[in-house]
Amino acid sequence: MFDHKILVVEDEKVLALDIRNSLQKLGYSVPEITASDDDVLQKVAETNPHLVLIDICLAREINGIKIVDIIQNHFHIPVLYLTDYSEEIKLHQQQLSEPFGHIPKQCAEKDLHFAVEMAIYKHQISRKFEEERQRLTAIINSMGCAVVVTYANGRIQMMNPVAEALTGWKQEEAYGKDLVEVVSLIDKDMDEVIDNLATQAIQAGEVLNLPDNCTLLAKDGKKVPIGDCVAPIRDLDGNISGAVLVLQDITKRKQIEAQLLRNACHDALTALPNRVLFIDRLRQTIERSKRRNDYNFAVLFLDLDGFKGINDRFGHSIGDDFLVAIARRLESCLRSGDTVARFGGDEFAVLIEDIKDVTDATNVAKRIQESLSVPLNINGYQICPTASIGIALSGHGYDEPQNLLRDADIAMYRAKRQGKARYGIF
Q1: Do 298 and 240 lie in a common domain?
Q2: Is 228 helix (H, G, I), strand (E, B) or coil?
Q3: The overall pTM is greater than 0.70
Q4: Are residues 292 and 373 in the same domain?
Q5: Within a domain: residue 157?
Q6: Are 274 and 341 in contact (CB under 8 A)?
Q7: Containing domain of residue 188, as a range?
Q8: Are residues 219 and 313 in the same domain?
Q9: Cβ atoms of residues 27 and 1 within 8 Å
Q10: What confidence tens digit (pLDDT) does each residue in 256-304 have?
Q11: Which residues of 176-222 form beta strands (DSSP E)?
Q12: Cα separation of 300 and 415, whole Å?
C-alpha cells in the first residue's frame, strides 16, 4: 500500500493540495499535482503512477475523454474520478455510476482510502483476468484443431482460427449465433441433421463424442468429414457455464482408412476384389437367396491355361501385365452388379447374381471364352490366352460360400481334363 504512487489532476489548487495531504497522510506517494489536462500524459509517462485521480469535469471535456482513454488503455493505469455534489446527483440519476469508480472531492480520509484501494484492487484483478483470458485465448488459437466455445444457451462465444477456416465463419459474424447455424453437422449414417451439441452436452453434463460418420456442412457448402467431442464447461463450484466443441478435419484419416480397407479387400496387382471380399459378397448373396425363392445365382471358377509357360518364356513382368489385361477383359464381360475376383496366381472367380437359369451362367462363360480368344499384345509380344471354367449353380441348397467354390473348382478341373479352353457345370 505504502509504495503506491498517485497522480492528482484537479484545477482547484486548494482542493488539490487538500487531497494530496490526505493521500500522503494515508501513506501514498503523490509526486505530482496538475491543474490542466494538457500535460497529464507527460506527467503519467514521467511518474508512472499506480492510480490517476482526475476531476470528472476535466475528464468530460473532449480532450479529457481522449486522455482518460489513453491512460486506461495505453498506459494501463486505473482512473478514479473526483466528483462534486452536483456531479454525484447526475451520476445516480443517469445510473452511470460504476461502483468504486468515483469519489466525492469532499470526503473523509477513510472513504478516500477505501476508494483508492478498491480502484487499485479492481484494476489488479481486471489485469489478472485479462492476462488469463489472453493466455487461454493464445492456447486455444495455437491448437491444431478447431475449437468453438459457447455460452450456456448454446450460442457461440468464441472460435479459434482453425474453426474459422473449417466452418467458413469469422468469429465476429458467428458471435451470438446458435451453434447449429455455424457448425452445421450431419450424421451420415442416420442421414439427419445433428441438434445443438453444446446444449446436449450441457443437459447431459458429460463429454459427448461426435458420431462416427459425421460431416460438417461449411458456409460455402463444402462437406468435411469431422470427428472429436463436445464437453460442458464447469466453474470452480461445478456449475456449467457453457460448452466447448473440439473438431478435427478427418478427411485424410478417412482416405487412409478407405485405402487400407481397399488394400485388405482387393488384389494389389489387378485391383480386382480378392478372395476375402468375394467370399463376403457370396455369403450375402446366399442369404439373399434364402429370403427369395426365385433368386438364382452362379459361381464361375476360372483357371488360365498354360500360364506357367508364359512366365517361363517371357518373364514375370510380362506375366503380371498379362494378368492385368485378363482382369480388364473379364470385367468387360460382366454386368455392373456382378463380381470378378482374383484368388491368386492365375485363378479367378466370378459371381453372377439374379439369373433365370443355367443358360445365363453358360452364356457368361461363353462370352468370357470369346473375349479371351482375341490375342493380347503385351509389350510387343502377342499372347493367345485360354481358360478353363467351372460353374456351380445356386439350386443345390448351398449354405457356405466355400462349398460353392469347391464345386465350381471341381467342374473347372473336369473341363481342363477334357482339353482346356472349355467350361463345365457341376
Answers
A1: no
A2: strand
A3: no
A4: yes
A5: yes
A6: yes
A7: 143-250
A8: no
A9: yes
A10: 888 888 888 899 899 999 999 999 999 999 988 888 888 899 999 999 9
A11: 184-187, 192-193, 208-209, 214-217
A12: 12
Q: Strand 156-159 relative to strand 146-151: parallel, antiparallel, unpaired?
A: antiparallel
Task: Give ∠ CA 366-371-375 in degrees, rounded to 5.
Answer: 135
Q: How many CB atoms lie within 10 A of CB 52?
A: 26
Paired with 342 in beta bridges are 348
> Residue 411 corresponds to which cell in the numbers above?
467342374
The residue among 252, 250, 186 whose CA lies nearest residue 218 is: 186
Find cell 466355400 and name the residue.
Answer: 402
User: CA–CA separation, 196 vs 211, rounded Å?
Assistant: 13
Separation between Cα atoms, residue 279 and residue 401, nearest integer Å: 6
Distance CA 40, CA 193 (A): 59
Q: How many CB atoms lie within 10 A of CB 54?
A: 23
Instruction: Write out the three cell numbers for 151.
Output: 455460452
Instruction: Give the count of beta carbons closer than 10 Å to the beta carbon of residue 35.
Output: 15
Total domain count, the chain: 3
Q: Which residues contact 197 (CB under 8 A, 6 or more apart)?
A: 179, 183, 185, 208, 210, 230, 243, 245
